[in-house]
Amino acid sequence: MMKINNYICTNLETIKNNEDILNTNESTGYYEISLKGDNSLLILKKVDEKAEENIPDNNFSISFYNKLKEYFNPLEIILEDKKFYVVNKEVFLRKLNEKTFDYFRKYPTKIEIVNKILFAMKESLKYENLEQEMEETSIFPYLFKIDEIKDIGNKTIESKTSEIYSGYDIPTLKTYVTKKIHRKKIKINFEEKLDESKSLPEQIKSAFKQMLELSETEPFEFDFTIKGYYIYNTETETVEKIEVDKKIKFYNVTTSTKRILKLEGFDENGTDEGRTYDEVGKELFEYLDKLGHKKEIDRQEFEKFLDEIAFSEKPKIFKTLKWYIETNKIGFLELIEGERDRIYISEKEVLKVFEEIFDM
Fold first, then answer.
1. Is the pLDDT of residue 83 over 90?
2. For 59-68, which contacts have Cβ atoms below 8 Å and span 24 or more sequence positions?
3. Cβ contact 132:166 at 8 Å
4. Residue 14 predicted with pLDDT over 90
5. Looking at residue 226, what DSSP letter applies?
6. Is residue 305 predicted with pLDDT exceeding 60?
7. What is the mean pLDDT of the chain?
8. DSSP three-state, residue 112
9. Which of 34, 26, 22 lies closest to 9 in space, CA to CA?
10. What is the pLDDT of residue 335?
11. Is 341 helix (H, G, I), strand (E, B) or coil?
């Protein structure tokens, strides 16, 4: 079954030399993304057919290159052995060939530049240059990672990144921290840094100096971080938002990028359905009274009570419960669980069982 969602993608890039801003780029695109199974994406960019066709003279080469990339639509991507491939590049190549002479006629004074860019782009489609460029700059490959990390919890893993320098995989340590933010949603934070046990910064700097034919005494900065988060709906199994912030210091230039992909209509501050803390105050007091006097709680009944409460309100409920247990030094609890009841005989154990119930 194919799942189709509409997303908004924004990209912001800033390039600095010390504190001087050399360049900034910002773009927004609207996409229809179809997920076919776990390893195939069809990414259709929604293009305004009435958009201006003429390319301005200032920055003509960059503008023309970006214009040609509009022919790379839709992108059909598959994942094989943790590596992704664009499978419809032949279609893009055919489109470029069909438009070549049209562009020669349209820009007769720039035929040499047009031909050079068209040739380079056609050659790149014959190899994996498009995939390499996407690995370095696009947020779409992150969609493939959700199946690996949706159940990862809190964990640090060894990894590699292709996002730092074109053509090089740099060893990294990637740390994930997962938090439930809604009864149906989780937020997966991640941060990726150089794995210095595999490759020291000074070794990398030295290698780049040799490659760029720089003196060993030449000042050369090298550092990077890639961090961000996913918001994933566990009920609909949908990525609702991805944000990736990347900062690279390389030689004497710092490049910062922010990439955001989010569902159309997504509201990060959307309210959670359910009852409020004030609305359940009377029932909460009844449970506290049972806890204090009878020293027993029916787990199924209590969990049903919790299910009716808005997720954002549950920390307040837990805080009150924790305060009551600690204040009254409740060190005994019989948890009624149907066929088999459980008994907890210390304040620490009583708190721990409620932490599990609240998923704190």
1. no
2. 60/110, 60/113, 61/113, 61/117, 64/113, 64/114, 64/117, 65/117, 65/121, 68/96, 68/117, 68/118, 68/121
3. yes
4. yes
5. E
6. yes
7. 88
8. helix
9. 26
10. 84
11. coil
Q: And the tokens for 205?
A: 């700097």
Strand partners of residue 43:
33, 75
Read off the amino acid at residue 239: V
Q: Can you read off the two tokens belonging to residue 25?
A: 């780029």
Tokens of 80: 């094989």
Which pLDDT value is given to residue 300? 87
Q: Which two tokens stand for residue 143?
A: 């969609």
Residue 231 vs residues 25, 32, 205, 217, 243: alpha-carbon distances, Å: 26, 18, 36, 45, 9
Distance CA 208, CA 217 (A): 13
Averaged pLDDT for residues 285-301: 88
d(CA 181, CA 187) in angstroms, rounded, equals 6
pLDDT at 54: 66
Give buried/exposed letters for 286-296 (b at 16+ CB in 10 A, else e).
ebbeebeeeee
* Cα–Cα distance measured from residue 207 to residue 66, given in angstroms and rounded to the nearest whole number: 32
pLDDT digits (tens, 9 = 90+) for 324-341: 999 999 888 888 887 667
The pair of structure tokens assigned to 69 is 């990339």
**Cis amide prior to 74 (ω within 30 degrees):** yes
Residue 302 or residue 18, greater confidence? 302
Give, rounded to a whole angstrom, the gap between the first and last alpha carbons of the chain. Answer: 35
Dist. CA 28–CA 209, nearest whole Å: 36
Three-state secondary structure along 13-79? Answer: EEEEECCEEEEEEEEEEEEEEEEECCCEEEEEECCCCCCCCCCCCCCHHHHHHHHHHHHCCCEEEEE
Residues 235-251 have pLDDT tens digits of 999 999 999 999 999 99
C-alpha 317/C-alpha 280 separation (Å) is: 9
Distances (CA, A) of 201 to 121, 157, 170, 196: 34, 19, 11, 7
Contacts of 343 (CB under 8 A, 6+ apart): 332, 333, 334, 335
Q: Which of 44, 46, 69, 64 is nearest to 54 (CA)?
A: 64
Query: In the predicted model, is pLDDT for residue 72 greater than 70?
Result: yes
Tokens 């997962």 appear where? 178
Total residues found in the chain within this entry: 360
